[in-house]
Amino acid sequence: MPLPVPTVLLHDIYELTPDGLRGMGVRFLMMDLDNTLAPYHVHEAGGELRRWVDGMRRGGIELFILSNNHGGRPEEFARQLGLDYVNRAKKPRPDTALKVMRSRGYSPSETAIIGDQIYTDVLCAVRCGVRSICVRPICISRNPLLAVRYFFELPFRGGKKNGKRQDR
Ligand SMILES: [Mg+2]
């Protein structure tokens, strides 16, 4: 099984720019929602997120929400941000992501997946043969299970439990 090692490690989505993506040859970005774009308890896309999405769009990057969420959140955020989406994407299974990518006419080398979970988002990207961008979960403190999971993902994040990332 391929190791779920991210291509790029970032603190959050706001470190990612259209130029940075285009420099990697990426034109299509499939984005995890929960704890990547917004924490679980937030239901409104904030100003910073909206501006970031607009900047990506103006910079020629097509965005898409690829969420495992079973509820209405992906639709809510997609509507607020003017994006297309799928929920119940069943990451890390590659089927849905590959279907979306192909239906949009992109190749794996033009595509990236961004998310906060190594065994879900990054592994899905690896299985799809696309670039993976891993961000820190926005908020893990409200869910002890997420904190435990994050701890076990640390070897793949190449970072420390606290403090600054080694890659920053
Ligand atoms: Mg997530």
Short description:
By secondary structure, the protein is an alpha/beta fold.
Layout of helices and strands, plus pairs?
Elements: E1 8-10, H1 18-23, E2 28-31, H2 47-58, E3 62-66, H3 73-81, E4 84-86, H4 95-103, E5 111-115, H5 118-128, E6 131-135, H6 144-157
Parallel strand pairs: 1-6, 2-3, 2-5, 3-4, 5-6
Bound molecules: magnesium ion.
Notable features of this structure?
single chain, 168 residues, alpha/beta, Rossmann fold, six-stranded parallel sheet, 36% helix, binds magnesium ion
The span between the termini is: 29 Å
Point out poorly predicted stretches.
Answer: 161-168
Main-sheet strand order equals 1-6-5-2-3-4
List ligands, each type once. magnesium ion
Number of domains: 1
How much helix, percentage-wise, in residues?
A: 25-40%
Helical stretch count?
A: 6
What's the CATH H-level homologous superfamily? HAD superfamily/HAD-like
Biggest beta sheet attributes = 6 strands, parallel
Please count the beta strands (DSSP E, at least 2 residues each).
6
* N to C succession of SSEs: EHEHEHEHEHEH
CATH architecture: 3-Layer(aba) Sandwich
CATH level 1 name: Alpha Beta
Compute the CA-based radius of gyration: 15 Å
